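Re-running Iron transporter to confirm reproducibility after the cluster update. Everything else is unchanged from the original entry.
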Amino acid sequence: MNPLNPSRFAAAVAALTALTVTGCGAATEPADTAGAAVDAPASAARTGYPLTFDNCGMRVTFQKPPRRVLILNGTSVGEVESFILLGLEKNILANAQSYGVSDDPTMIGKIKALPTGGLTMNKNFDVPAEQVLKLKPDLVVSTWSGGFDAKSGFATREQLAAAGITSLVNPVNCAMGKPEATEAERRAYRNQSINSSLEFIGLLGRVFDVQQRAFDLIRELRGRVETVRRRVAGLPAKKVLIAYPGMSMMNANDLPAVMVGGIYDDVIKAAGGVNVFAGQNSDATRTINKEQLATAEVDVLVVGLFTPQEKGDEEAAKIFAAYPHWAASKSRTYTTVSDGVYLGPLNALAVEKISKVVHPGD
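Result of re-run:
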């Protein structure tokens, strides 16, 4: 995913007593299950059942569209947002994902309106095995392979299958929490992108027989991103820093969590910029120190909001005061984002917001 490790991020959530956030990674689904949906035709065929495909090394079969879906937490919000944008709310039996702030403000209320099934989290901040099995869903969705780790108290995919319950991992996160991940899965995880978000939408379209809705949504979201790409094409790529002050517990040096790699770099690139720390892997979020920030060249600051209580202008002012020599500090050039830079269906919103400060008026 991403730079965020779910177990570490869960601790951050607990520390802030906040709702959960996406920290998503990326490993791509084989083309016959998801990727083909990304470049969609004008119309889509209906899904043929039984639908069988490989999901992170496990063969899964759907005899019909699932009607009792449990969406696990996994410190993600991308999966539940994808369900909502596809109009699949009625298929959700219980949802454990939520986030108190969003680049799409309407999303907050829509997520809160979903049933939770009375579920509670265990010490690892997800639904324990006994509760999952008792609820009897027909599908359990996890943002990462670790959502089915018995060592964390979660139901395994094998346990669920034995109980007649299908499981599904967001294909972009196959390698996350999977020690035996293939090299292809690990490589795809490292190379996550905006396209990874669209692939999950395409996969849901097939599983739930809403391929036309998925194709239309993918086309809209892709079109918005491409509109920005065309607008900024050929313009100087300004250096952009994405920093989440509210996630300072993610950084070993108690600094704002700086988002590096994967989908973060791709969002910035689509907006006409380049990540200040481009080329570094996700470990940078944990290891970046004050000296590195002090010597960084930052033209644009993107302040990530983690909780509803945070004020973007105040957080930007604090960061500018700490690093007054930045070009961004001198010009006061910044914007705010929340879930739009994570793996999920809101990347287009973040690209549009960031592009307006990277290349205003162009």
